Amino acid sequence: MITVQTDLGGNVARAQYVLVPSHEFSFPAALHEARELLSRDWDHLEPDPYMADGGKYRFRRYGLYRLSASAGHLTHVPDASFYQSIEVNPLNGGENRHFAPLAADTVSNPFLRELIEFDFAQLTSRQHIEDDWLIGVHQIRITATTGVQGNPTPEGIHRDDENYTSQHLVARHNIGGGINYFYGSGPEPTSRPQAVWKQESYFDSYYFDRSLWHSVSPITAGDGDGYRDVILIDFVELPEAH
Ligand SMILES: [Fe+2]
Asked: Measured in angstroms, how far is the CA atom of residue 5 from the centroid of ligand 1?
């Protein structure tokens, strides 16, 4: 079982987000190899064809899961597309985006499954779960080369549309920038960031709800190519079925 020293759900309920450095997690030895294998998936992502700014610096894969609250189990939903409204993502929203699916090895990776269930349990620890949830898994690599930066959040300061989102750093290689900025959860973002955090290690993570304003600064490469790899998991509560 994955464990963490922080009350993630309590912090998100109280402050709408929480930053969790990797050393606060413990991972079971039995999943060590699967956790290492998962990180290698990022070498096999596909270009994101939906970049309205013409950028060629984003690579990704996407998978959708359904969590049945009554049965308590997680099912992978094949061939799912990803939708964000224009309001949430003025740059790339407003259409169904069909990203490359998660690789079969990724879907069957026991660490990924454990991570999804862990994040869900943590984020919803303060709430009574009756409804089913849709859970999106995004593997994303942002690249930069000498003189050409990559932008993790081309839409700028924004909020996400899902009830909850978790973000785990997988790798940073040969880059500067890629700093996380958090701007509160009021009707408008604060004029100055309330928190600034640079994730450095595999599994430096943050968790937040849909009210949190956030952005990530562009990445620049040193000599040669650089990249920043993250896994984003988003959690959407479905309306109660009658
Ligand atoms: Fe976001």
From this structure: 25
> For residues 89 and 163, is the Cβ–Cβ distance under 8 A?
no
Phi, psi of 175 (to 5 degrees): -135, 155
Please give the Cα distance from 6 to 21 (Å, whole number): 10
Centre of ligand 1 from the C-alpha of residue 208, in Å: 9
Neighbours of ion ligand 1 (CB under 5 A): 160
pTM metric for this prediction: 0.93
What are the pLDDT digits (tens) for 209-237?
Answer: 999 999 999 999 988 999 999 999 999 99
Give the helix/strand (H/E) hosting 8: helix 8-15
C-alpha distance from residue 203 to each of 20, 157, 168, 229 (Å): 8, 23, 5, 11
CA atoms within 13 A on the CB side of 116: 27
Q: Which residues contact 211 (CB under 8 A, 6 or more apart)?
A: 16, 159, 185
